[in-house]
Amino acid sequence: MEPYSRVGPSFLCQENKSKGGFTAPLLLSSSSSNHLQPPKPVQSRVLGFLHQSSENSPVSMAKTQAGAVNSGGRTGVRIVVAGDPGTGKSSLIVTAAAETFPTNVPPVLPPTRLPEDFYPDRVPITIIDTSSREEDKVRVSEELKRADAVVLTYACDDHRTLERLSSYWLPELRRLEVRVPVIVVGCKLDLREENLQVSLEQVMAPIMQQFREIETCIECSAFNHIQIPEVFYYAQKAVLHPTGPLFDQETQTLKPRCVRALKRIFILCDHDRDGALSDAELNDFQVKCFNAPLQPSEIVGVKRVVQEKLKEGVNERGLTLTGFLFLHALFIEKGRLETTWTVLRKFGYTNDIKLADELIPSSFKRTADQSVELTNEAIDYLKGIYELFDSDYDNNLRIYELEDIFSTAPECPWNEAPYNDAAEKTALGGLSLDGFLSEWALMTLLEPAQTMENLIYIGYTLDLSSAVRVTRRRRLDRKKQQSERNVFQCFVFGPKNAGKSALLNSFLGRPFSDSYVPTTEERFAVSVVDQPGGNKKTLVLREVPEDGVTKLLSGKESLAACDMALFVYDSSDELSWKRTTELLVEVASHGENTGYEVPCLVVAAKDDLVSFPMAIQDSTRVFTAVTVLLYISILIL
């Protein structure tokens, strides 16, 4: 039974039209003795189905490379074996652990442990056998929910047990919301009649198409010791080196996050920034990831292979980004996911293809009324990034240029709220330099760790401690009546339909809209404000929906980050004014009671409409010891 491959080496690099197998030398082998040896066929969700013969076993091959791969910090893998009665679950487990076929096995085995040196990743495995009795169904469900991987068995000599995978077991896993890799195992291969021999590909392809959680399909015989170790090897491998984060099974391509991470790694290794990895840079990369150098002849062989398959993969300076990605596409094709995972983990990536938390400064020691701002060093760096990617120098960073800046991050951090609609856009729909820096200022104010993470992704190489600073306490600023901060935050309160959103839109230079859409979630608007003397400050307006005020004020420190509270009312609606005064009293009282008093500003919106009969000056004024009320009528059109 020949191996079946789902993908060819062209699935990533569209320019490569070859669909055939690839057995040329590969870079990044984990031992110097076989740097340029083609990997043995490994069958999985990416590659298809496992060969029936145990010759050239991937387990025996992998054991020669023990300790060379990175397990992602896992200390154990829990594999649950389930299936219909009589499908060989217990015999499979005993034969794998004892390397001998049992003559008698109990109905259900106790937990079985495979030691850390059993497989090359050196991570111990705990195998959980399960009962097939109806009265044990609840316990089986509990075990499945705790699994890191599930092995589902069927009997090769009983087609009904195979049908039960689709009719019961796989739907049951979905019902239980068990979202882990599934290995489908056909046991008792020695009992299948010769005249019933069929292609495993033909049998399993429709099932794998319907149930994408199936990672690998394999047939085995405990009695004849055929592919028994491989079963749990592939189950462990699916957990330690998962396909899902790297490969999109629907489109048969590397996932965007994987490509973005590999692009960042390529740029970090391209020390002279010439767009290609020279021989020396390739060798440095090899040593960093696999602790073994490449010989000059091996480097020549690698580049020759890439160039034969993908001309633009190599130029006169060395291996290009396209060629680098192409090599990793080949590893996926050959089932060598552990190679790509080793590279990713060496550069600090987790299974989510994001940098590990410990690499990102996330603890900013500060009180509630202190904030975090970018330093001049970081701002200068970001200005340089803007100029580099604003290719036509028109002070208009287009969407594709912004995406290019963050092409080495998992995604653009400003695609979602609260950032996606927070900054002023140019007439062409892009970001000016001030708009670009405003987005960074807002992200640093709200999520400083997110700023640090994305600075790393886009190539900030200075000491990260020089990128941000913690400001002086607001309480002290007010006492001294001066501040050295560059970013100020204003909370915007008001009743429904008072004009809060229109005020934020006007602040961002957007036209007035007659259509009213009530705000249900907090919204931010941020822009650079010119000051006398040529200085610039960044102002953040935070719109708080009327229904969200009670929730906001439920926290003692909710006003600590507020520099000013702005209250908007509809000047043509007396009820709007009354509700605004109520909100003002609530906010001012909360500030006084918690020690986080804030100056307040009242804004009369819709001044173009007829004012309500009772004049503003005759209305009750609300004062507190720490509240300053200013009445300003503005026209928002």
What does this structure look like?
This protein has 637 residues and is an alpha/beta fold. It folds into four domains: 77-240, Rossmann fold (3-Layer(aba) Sandwich); 253-354, Recoverin, domain 1, CATH 1.10.238.10; 360-474, EF-hand (Recoverin, domain 1); 487-633, P-loop containing nucleotide triphosphate hydrolases (Rossmann fold). Helix content is 34%, strand content 14%. It is built from 19 helices and 19 strands. It has helices at 58-63, 89-98, 137-145, 159-175, 200-210, 228-240, 256-269, 279-290, 296-309, 321-333, 337-346, 376-389, 399-405, 433-446, 448-457, 474-480, 500-507, 549-552, 574-594, and strands at 77-83, 112-114, 125-129, 149-155, 182-187, 214-219, 247-248, 253-254, 276-277, 314-315, 318-320, 372-374, 468-470, 487-493, 523-530, 536-543, 564-570, 600-605, 631-633. Strands 2-3-1-4-5-6 form a six-stranded mixed sheet, with helices on both faces. Strands 15-16-14-17-18-19 form a six-stranded mixed sheet, sandwiched between helices. A hairpin with a 5-residue loop joins strand 15 and strand 16. It is globular and about 90 Å long. This is Mitochondrial Rho GTPase. Its EC number is 3.6.5.-. Pfam families: EF_assoc_1, EF_assoc_2, Ras. It is found in: Mitochondrion outer membrane.
